[in-house]
Amino acid sequence: MALWGKGDPRWIVEERPDSTNVNNWHWTERDATTWSKSKLKELFLSLKEETDEGSWKIDEVKSVTGEATINNRKGKLIYFYEWELTLNYKGTLPGSELEHKGTITIPNLSDENDADDIDVQVIAKGDAKNAEKLKTMVRKNGIKMCQDMCGKYVADLKVEYSKGMVLETKENGKKNGVINNNKKGDIYSRDIQNLSIQENGDKKDNNKKNTTSSGKEIKLSEEFQNMPANELFATLTQDARLCAFTRSQCISKPAPGGEFSLLNGNITGTYIELVPDEKIVQTWRFKEWPSDVYSTVTIDLQQKSSGTKLKLTQTGVPEVDVGRTEKGWKMHFFEPIHQVFGFGRPVL
To answer: CA 146 → CA 122, 222, 281, 334, distances in Å?
Structure first.
């Protein structure tokens, strides 16, 4: 119960020009069903594969059944979606112009399932030997391709509907970040809150060590299968996408001299150089580092036929923070991009 006269923020009426949803306290809802149907059809109609074993593609999105809504409560965005899809595919095998057809069913694309847990069922039309061969080929890579497209839909949904749902407040003058409603999102929130203190030991002692002027160097690389370089560049610089995969408040102004704030302000810095789809150079620091201590991060993106290879070099990292900085890139950036945006790693 809010306490009268005790300064409880729920009793304070902000000066908002639109006079709506003060402090983002009230539940607001947007229907994303129509947008989702169009997006799902667009994504799956682009699905195709051509190898030495043959070629196939999605010929028709036969049915898209379900709904999607986005809710804002207390400045948090909660996504509800549940879909069942039926897709028709067709393809050919080497040495034959005869087309074979089949059906792909996805019964459980929902907020309760991660992309890798989504069921994809492939059924050949007819029992001809070559129809079964094509079905086997579709299953080989097509199941993962469909799961990746489901992940791409979820990522695009979060980017599209993180805009304008959480209103600015007088207190911070900023938009709150995107918080996912599933269990993994809760774990991420706790990880982010602990990011500024984990592996630090005694804080006073660490602050003394962080004043080291030279610092250490970190080198990392990661491959994002089926993710174009322009998509990865946007994901690492656009605040809506940063909010989506970190599930936290992020602000980014991607231009030389533009500032950024990530993971609820735990990481801040300034862009030094931006080469679209190829290179990002930025100053970078944890908030508890002394005010004169910054590292420099250089991210190079290499477009490959299978996706994009990311190479990261970070210099000037205080020795005491090398371990948690390296771990943080993997845990709070690379892994969530794979999971939220549905782009996998190369098959070894």
So the answer is: 11, 22, 34, 21
